[in-house]
Amino acid sequence: MAGGDSVGARDGLWERFGAALYEPFVRRGERLGLADRRGELLRRARGQVVEIGAGTGLNVAHYPATAEVVLTEPVPAMYRRLEKRVAGRAGMRLVQAPADALPMAEASVDTVVSTLVLCTVPDVDRVLAELARVLRPGGRLLFCEHVRAEDPKLARRQTRLAGPWAAFAQGCRCDRDTVALLKQRFHIEEMSTARWRGMPSVVHPLIIGTATA
Asked: Which first-to-last residue range defines the signal peptide (predicted)?
């Protein structure tokens, strides 16, 4: 939901509108708990860190001061807002790059961060393969994603509204079974579930955790 997956992403009116709307749209959800969840998760970031789909930079304030962070974002309108948020912060570098083609060497990264991104990329397996490629042995993926509901009634609603939601949220899929996709490429070390309060019900179910390739 935070960013796209193509370095050649459009920079049209709709994309600029989406970038401008993003933070006001999620503000209530951040205030009602998601900001705290970001902080809890990102305290675990160690060493060389790469964040995919960094969007407007809502994670920036939560990184440990000792972390060396590369923030990647392919959508120009999001990237411009990210630049403003990162200005003057030590230890942070920006790269306009897609999540499925990161400009990092194989086995060169200690921590990869994905928050509300795997819902939006068209080819999740390709992205996860790229994350596994850049992670060092023993490196970790930190994730916070909204996912397909376990509750059958809500899952049916997600399926029914997946198309309209994707059109509104610039490709975000509210019905994606991200847990199953993660398990195809990663070993999930720990994972908790939560509710994204203050947001539409189709994106309420959250997973937060860590995984190794």
From this structure: none
Name the residue ranges covered by the structural domains of the chain. Answer: 13-212
Contact (CB, 8 A) for 208 and 179: no
**95 conformational bin, left if phi > 0, alpha if psi -120 to 50, beta if neither:** beta
Whether the Cβ atoms of residue 86 and residue 60 lie closer than 8 Å to each other: yes
Residues 1-53 have pLDDT tens digits of: 665 554 446 778 878 888 999 999 999 999 999 999 999 999 999 999 999 99
Helix, coil or strand: residue 76? helix
Give the burial class of 168: count Cβ atoms within 10 A of its Cβ; 0-12 exposed, 13-18 middle, 19 or more buried: middle
Within 10 angstroms of residue 175's Cβ, the number of other Cβ atoms is 21
Q: What is the number of residues in the chain?
A: 213
Mean pLDDT by 10 residues, the chain (213 residues): 56 84 96 98 96 97 93 96 93 96 97 98 96 97 98 98 95 97 97 98 98 95
When computed from its CA atoms, the radius of gyration of the chain, rounded to whole angstroms, is 16
Q: Which two tokens stand for residue 92?
A: 């942070």
The pTM assigned to this predicted structure is 0.94
Largest CA distance in the chain: 47
* CATH label, 13-212, candidates 3.40.50.150, 3.10.100.10, 3.30.2010.10, 3.30.565.10: 3.40.50.150
User: Helix, strand, coil: what percent of the chain each, to 5?
Assistant: 40, 25, 40
CA distance 141 to 207: 13
